[in-house]
Design a protein that fits this description.
This protein is 64% helix and 6% strand. It is mainly alpha-helical and 412 residues long. Helix 4 (59-84) runs parallel beside helix 9, helix 4 runs antiparallel to helix 12 (259-285) and helix 9 crosses helix 10 (237-247). Mean pLDDT is 82; it is low at 1-35, 383-390 and 397-412.
Length: 412
């Protein structure tokens, strides 16, 4: 017998009403969260700002920016290997050397005689750049069977050998590398336009565009491509698989993820990123020598990842900019800083390169102590307090649960 005041089966409220009411009641005390569109707007504004420097900055700042771009590309690749796949590599400098010398050998023509003879294939520069990236990837693929079976410290020691082998080859393979004296780097050419100090009178908005101004935009395109490629890789199935391997190899095996294959693939992709960064670094230097690609460079890249944040593409880029730009700034302003002297100065003091290493060494310690997530974690600081203040969803009271009427009781 149903009560006249109770609702009937034909008078049920719409299904969306409780959800709407609950969302309305909960929305009154939940703070507004940042929209994803704001991050896209900030990225777009940053890209627009990066188009401006060639119109206002001199050669020193443009070359420093190109060094940073090359480091960003290479650091993103190492971040995919160490931060995402959880593999330690101390031989990243070797693959930068493969990209730099590979581009030079592919693009340059054979010249010289006797002991000073240098060989080259004289390919179009754009094709030589792609070939250098593929050559670095092939070098990583040759080493990938070993990288797929070794983990953590063992892989780090194995890759450390690549740096010493690479130094020996660069010094002794004189017809290809030029030996101790190095080798001049042919300029890049795209669509008939030389990205060098060509005397063709090119000017944009009344500003003469030399080699560094032209190369700036080429490097910017490479950075954007590397960043988007890494982001898409991390958001796809390969990125999730590598993250699962990093967190738990046993759980990844249960899910059917082949550990050896994905680790080898991560090492190959990281090598290709390093090859692209090395080729861009060679174009920025305009002359490369073996000492540039020593063990210190590999240590610098590890510092970039720790300072920027492991597992974050943006963090790797931020760490690369910090570690690369700091020595350049100290060298440029050495005469204005206390206790720092310019390179080659007879005065007593701390060299700019050594001062830079001390500073970002201190930055490493401070990051590990106070910011374990690196610079990338700073973007989440505003969200965490909201998460703490977010109240739990409202729960029905005990009285309502125990003594409240239900629809079944009304219809029985």
């Amino acid at each position: 017998m149903s009560d006249a005041s109770s609702p009937s089966l034909t008078e049920q409220p719409p299904k969306s009403a409780p959800a709407a009411a609950g969302s309305a009641s909960g929305a009154s005390h939940l703070p507004a969260r940042p929209r994803p569109r704001s991050g896209r707007i900030a990225t777009a504004v940053g890209l627009v700002l990066l188009l401006v420097p060639p119109f206002y900055l001199d050669a020193f700042w443009l070359q420093t920016g190109l060094f940073a771009m090359a480091a960003v590309i290479s650091a993103i690749g190492l971040g995919l290997l160490s931060g995402t796949a959880g593999q330690l590599s101390l031989g990243h400098a070797f693959f930068l050397a493969v990209g730099a010398y590979g581009y030079t050998w592919f693009a340059d023509a054979s010249h010289g005689k006797g002991a000073n003879a240098l060989t080259g294939l004289s390919l179009p520069p754009w094709l030589a750049f792609l070939a250098a990236v593929l050559l670095a990837g092939a070098a990583g693929a040759v080493f990938s069977p070993l990288s797929g079976r070794l983990r953590s410290m063992y892989l780090g020691v194995a890759t450390l050998a690549l740096v010493f082998v690479g130094q020996h080859v660069l010094v002794n393979a004189t017809p290809v590398t030029g030996g101790f004296n190095g080798r001049s780097v042919p300029p890049m050419e795209l669509f008939g336009l030389s990205l060098s100090d060509a005397d063709d009178g090119l000017a944009v908005l009344g500003v003469p565009f030399g080699g560094l101004e032209r190369l700036w935009y080429f490097g910017l395109v490479l950075v954007v491509a590397a960043y988007l490629g890494a982001r898409n890789l991390l958001r796809g199935r390969p990125g999730r698989a590598m993250g699962a391997l990093r967190d738990s190899e046993v759980a990844a095996a249960v899910m059917g993820i082949p550990a050896t294959r994905f680790r080898a693939a991560a090492f190959t992709v990281s090598s290709m990123y390093a090859g692209a960064g090395g080729a861009l670094l060679a174009l920025a230097y305009q002359r490369i020598v073996p000492d540039t690609f020593g063990l210190a460079l590999s240590m610098d890249f590890l510092a970039m990842l720790v300072i920027g944040g492991l597992g974050s593409v943006a963090g790797a880029a931020a760490g690369a900019v910090f570690v690369t730009v700091l020595p350049q700034l100290l060298t440029h302003y050495a005469d204005q800083l206390p206790l720092v002297v310019a390179p080659g100065s007879p005065e007593g003091g701390l060299g700019s390169v050594d001062a830079a290493r001390y500073l970002y060494g201190a930055a490493l310690v401070l990051t590990l102590l106070f910011l374990p997530g690196g610079l990338a974690s700073l973007s989440h600081r505003r969200i965490r307090p909201w998460a703490r203040r977010t109240p739990p969803p409202p729960q029905p009271s005990a009285a309502a649960t125990a003594g409240g009427d239900t629809l079944k009781e009304h219809t029985s």
